[in-house]
């Protein structure tokens, strides 16, 4: 028998759940329930890899060292969904294949990113990602999806370049878009850019001192060149997202680095200043847990000692894009006072007016290879060096 107390307790938590869903669900917060039933004035269109003979070979082949245009759209519209998957003998295909997007007959691509890292999968790996704009879905992350709206006024073109030494035997895709009759109400276009840096300690003695383990922690001295640059761009737009792929050669926490965001010409004092890398990505206290929210998360964490190895973090500012009128600069410290060696790869996502100048050129695949793994064998060699330094003997390791 359900008592009144139990009944009201259950009713309370049901209400809390429904209210929480209303405000946490990004679809609900966008008011879909008040607009989805209203008449639309666009036509739904799709370009896909469907077999033109009506057979079951619903894929295309992309030979090694070749580029194929998979979609070329004339007219006005908005790409609303992209789905892709592939099969290749190259285990690093997702890192060695590049996706490019061009809008409105522009000479330069607005998107130029390795395929896996664009869709939220680092290091050529396959794993689940569940965010609002990007989803890597079962089987084991092989299904890559984008829900970023990508508007265009006169044309859109999407290319896939296979830089691999192996053919892509099966490349499947959908490009779902809306064909519009009325003009778009914004000149901003979707952009995405890849960046990488293998950082070095910029402390006064070049020691990787973090958490004060090697002596007093230094104060941060601002020097733009010492920071990892997530994005630097000119024009009018709004920044909306970041995938950050961290490969750490140290077991110590990599995330004491603050974010610094400079907006519209101010590069001496950050417009937006943060308190630590985990805080940028809406977590706390050096997490090592897989966690995925529509706006932020850690879909892949280090499975080694401490924070040694690979961690993937994401944050999407869909609740409030970061606006800029003239220029934008997003810097990130690598450890407090830029004290750590890290392999940092970022993919920045933003909207802005088409820029007459090209973006930073994506390095060829030979310059995008992963750093070698550091494992228990290397740690044992570190121990041997430590014992030798201490004169061998009865050395435990915490001396």
Automatic annotation (TrEMBL):
InterPro entries in the cross-refs: DUF2961 (IPR021345)
Pfam families to which the protein is assigned, alphabetical: DUF2961 (PF11175)
Top-level taxon of the source organism: Bacteria
Protein name: DUF2961 domain-containing protein
Taxonomic placement: Bacteria, Pseudomonadati, Spirochaetota, Spirochaetia, Leptospirales
């Amino acid at each position: 028998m359900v008592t009144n107390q139990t009944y009201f307790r259950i009713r309370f938590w049901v209400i809390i759940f429904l209210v929480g869903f209303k405000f946490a669900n990004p679809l609900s917060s966008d008011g879909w329930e008040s607009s989805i039933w209203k008449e639309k004035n666009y036509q739904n269109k799709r370009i896909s890899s469907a077999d033109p003979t009506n057979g079951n070979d619903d894929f295309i082949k992309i030979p090694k060292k070749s580029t194929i245009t998979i979609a070329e759209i004339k007219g006005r519209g908005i790409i609303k969904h992209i789905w892709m998957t592939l099969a290749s003998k190259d285990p690093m295909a997702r890192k060695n294949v590049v996706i490019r997007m061009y809008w409105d007959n522009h000479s330069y691509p607005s998107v130029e990113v390795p395929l896996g890292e664009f869709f939220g999968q680092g290091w050529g790996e396959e794993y689940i990602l569940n965010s609002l704009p990007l989803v890597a879905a079962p089987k084991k992350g092989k299904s890559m999806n984008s829900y970023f709206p990508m508007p265009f006024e006169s044309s859109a073109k999407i290319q896939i370049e296979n830089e691999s030494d192996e053919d892509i035997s099966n490349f499947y895709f959908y490009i779902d878009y809306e064909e519009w009759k009325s003009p778009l109400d914004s000149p901003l276009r979707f952009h995405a850019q890849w960046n990488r840096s293998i950082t070095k300690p910029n402390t006064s003695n070049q020691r990787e001192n973090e958490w004060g383990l090697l002596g007093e922690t230094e104060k941060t001295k601002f020097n733009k060149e010492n920071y990892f640059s997530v994005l630097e761009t000119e024009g009018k737009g709004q920044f909306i997202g970041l995938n950050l792929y961290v490969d750490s050669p140290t077991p110590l926490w990599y995330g004491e680095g603050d974010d610094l965001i400079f907006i519209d010409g101010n590069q001496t004092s950050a417009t937006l200043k943060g308190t630590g890398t985990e805080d940028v990505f809406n977590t706390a206290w050096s997490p090592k847990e897989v966690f995925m929210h529509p706006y932020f998360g850690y879909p892949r964490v280090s499975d080694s000692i401490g924070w040694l190895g690979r961690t993937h973090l994401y944050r999407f500012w869909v609740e409030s894009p970061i606006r800029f009128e003239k220029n934008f600069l997003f810097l990130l410290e690598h450890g407090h006072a830029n004290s750590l060696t890290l392999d940092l790869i970022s993919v920045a996502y933003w909207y802005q007016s088409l820029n007459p100048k090209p973006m930073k050129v994506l390095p060829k695949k030979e310059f995008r290879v992963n750093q070698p793994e550091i494992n228990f064998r290397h740690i044992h060699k570190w121990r041997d060096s430590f014992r030798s330094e201490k004169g061998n003997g009865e050395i435990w390791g915490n001396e």
